[in-house]
């Protein structure tokens, strides 16, 4: 599998909480800004990340990126609400559908299914790390992946 390089970076990514939390724990939030020129994060996601023990540090790292912005939550379309996702996932997918995006950055399996059903391009935390490696932003992906906490999620390799 080949990953796009920095020169092929997508323009706008809408980012969910779990990738932010995980990248924050390994101090790699800046990879998002190196791979996309516009990072949009719904307020619901900021609230979720901020509620974590080290969430404020992660939000500060995110907001230090010139390309990052917090976007207001909006009333989600009924076809997204029907998936009964969490507030962050619902807002990420809604923002992407309503305002357009090149990619949603989301790890939750059911949210990924919803995003796919909405015709959205998807990348997760591991995809961000893989693209960063391919773009030469990091020397090796394995040390970062090995540091990622694995509490509530399962790594599935295809």
Element layout with pairings:
Elements: E1 12-15, H1 17-25, H2 30-35, E2 38-42, H3 43-50, H4 55-63, E3 68-71, H5 78-81, H6 87-99, E4 103-105, H7 109-117, E5 122-123, H8 125-134, H9 142-147
Parallel strand pairs: 1-2, 1-4, 2-3, 4-5
Give the overall silhouette.
globular
Q: And the CATH topology?
A: Rossmann fold
CATH architecture: 3-Layer(aba) Sandwich
Indicate the structural class: alpha/beta
Low-confidence stretches: 1-10
Percent helix, as a range, is 40-55%
The whole-number mean of residue pLDDT values reads 89
How many structural units, i.e. domains? 1
Tally of helical segments: 9
What is the gyration radius calculated from CA atoms?
14 Å
CATH homologous superfamily title: 5'-nuclease
Relative strand content = 5-15%
SSE run: EHHEHHEHHEHEHH
Question: What is the CATH C level class, in words?
Answer: Alpha Beta
Number of strands: 5
Main sheet: strands, sense, barrel: 5 strands, parallel
Order of strands across the widest beta sheet? Answer: 3-2-1-4-5
Protein name: DUF3368 domain-containing protein
Organism: Allochromatium palmeri
């Amino acid at each position: 599998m080949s990953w796009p390089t920095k020169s092929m970076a997508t323009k706008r990514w809408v980012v969910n909480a779990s990738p932010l939390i995980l990248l924050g724990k390994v101090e790699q939030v800046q990879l998002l800004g190196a791979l996309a020129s516009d990072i949009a994060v719904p307020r619901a996601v900021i609230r979720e990340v901020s509620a974590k023990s080290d969430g404020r540090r992660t939000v500060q790292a995110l907001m230090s990126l010139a390309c990052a912005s917090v976007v207001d939550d909006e009333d989600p379309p009924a076809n997204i609400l029907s998936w009964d996702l969490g507030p962050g996932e619902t807002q990420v997918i809604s923002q992407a559908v309503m305002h357009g995006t090149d990619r949603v950055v989301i790890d939750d399996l059911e949210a990924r299914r919803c995003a796919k059903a909405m015709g959205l391009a998807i990348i997760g935390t591991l995809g961000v790390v893989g693209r960063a490696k391919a773009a030469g932003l990091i020397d090796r992906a394995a040390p970062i992946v090995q540091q990622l906490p694995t509490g509530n999620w399962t790594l599935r390799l295809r």
